[in-house]
Amino acid sequence: MWSSSQASTRGVVEMGGRVEAGPSHFPKRPAPRNPARVNLSRTHAVKPCSAGDRAGISVKCNLGWSSQPSPDLKRHLRGFSSASEAVLTSQSDLRKLFVGNEKIGVLLLNLGGPETLDDVQPFLFNLFADPDIIRLPRLFRFLQKPLAQFISVVRAPKSKEGYASIGGGSPLRQITDAQAEALKEALCEKDVPAKVYVGMRYWHPFTEEAIQQIKRDGITKLVVLPLYPQFSISTSGSSLRLLESIFREDEYLVNMQHTVIPSWYQREGYIKAMATLIENELTKFPEPQKVMIFFSAHGVPLAYVEEAGDPYKAEMEECIDLIMEELEKRGITNPCTLAYQVTAALSNFNQPNMVFILLLLINLLNL
Ligand SMILES: C=CC1=C(C)c2cc3[nH]c(cc4nc(cc5[nH]c(cc1n2)c(C)c5CCC(=O)O)C(CCC(=O)O)=C4C)c(C)c3C=C
Ligand SMILES: [Fe+2]
After folding, report:
1. Within 10 Å of residue 38's Cβ, how many Cβ atoms?
2. Pocket of ligand 1 (CB under 6 A)
3. pTM surpassing 0.80?
4. Does CATH number 3.40.50.1400 belong to domain 268-364?
């Protein structure tokens, strides 16, 4: 999938059970088109993590396949409806993070990408082996890796063509490293000496590597920031699920205070930056007012949105509303449209296609 923009925010930050509300909220929006979905996004919000909290990373997502959130999940949602309004943005808020000799770390999570054409197939294998990308029915879980191997080999030539056309590899690592450096400098300017780490889901530097470094550096408080503006089970959800499993099994990490910013698509800075990008592009047309603004977003499997409560679609649409509202304030009233990409072979799979995949596999393996 070839995404051009990975930028944007309402963040939720808690440290050691304390929620700090910053002053620079983006003005509150009317309810998005699908409020139920957005409510679910709050389940990815943070809950206080104390030394006694053995659950590790405190992110709760409805990552299963039930069509209804469980009563437990609903309770959880209610608990966070106010916390999710909290943001940690001001300098004074950030300073409050420092208590004694605390060492602050920020972990940026991203997808990762092949750096050379030889990396493409193993990168694709890692991606398709992830049950948050391809979810097989429980009975067929043992086929996850053979299926990933098969799809990655079949998909690799097409993928390689794409990566070859942009210089022979993914620029994602360089871009993410540059973001990490810029964030470190920005925090330093605010007198917040934090270390910033990059943890990729499917390629180097892997999340596991970043976590090892965090432990070596003796970080005592960690902010986890997925670099996807909108939350999806297949992106931030997958990275956070991995992190949760790493935390659960590690004494050091379980006892480290941490917090998660689940999505940040409605942050003022992001919305304004997006509006400015669009504004600048419009000036390149001879008649800017006649231009249709075309938003292109990743597709996610329909079942994620309809059955598992993935808030991605609702967050994306709310985000676009906010950008258009910002443009309107600047006197730009062009029409706009939104399309979801279905570029990866299986990105829109649902039950019938799942059957197709399995039949394909059964054929292939002569079962
Ligand atoms: C098949 C399932 C996939 C789902 C679901 C999916 C969701 C999804 N992806 C992004 C962002 C990116 N994806 C990227 C690459 C990529 N993604 C898939 C598959 C799914 N993505 C594949 C097979 C690939 C590899 C390239 C290809 O063969 O098309 C990338 C690029 C990474 C890089 O190399 O720089 C990004 C970015 C989002 C935001 C998303 C759901 C919301
Ligand atoms: Fe993708």
Report:
1. 20
2. 1, 3, 6, 111, 113, 124, 127, 133, 155, 159, 170, 172, 228, 232, 234-235, 298, 300-301, 312, 343-344, 346-347
3. no
4. yes
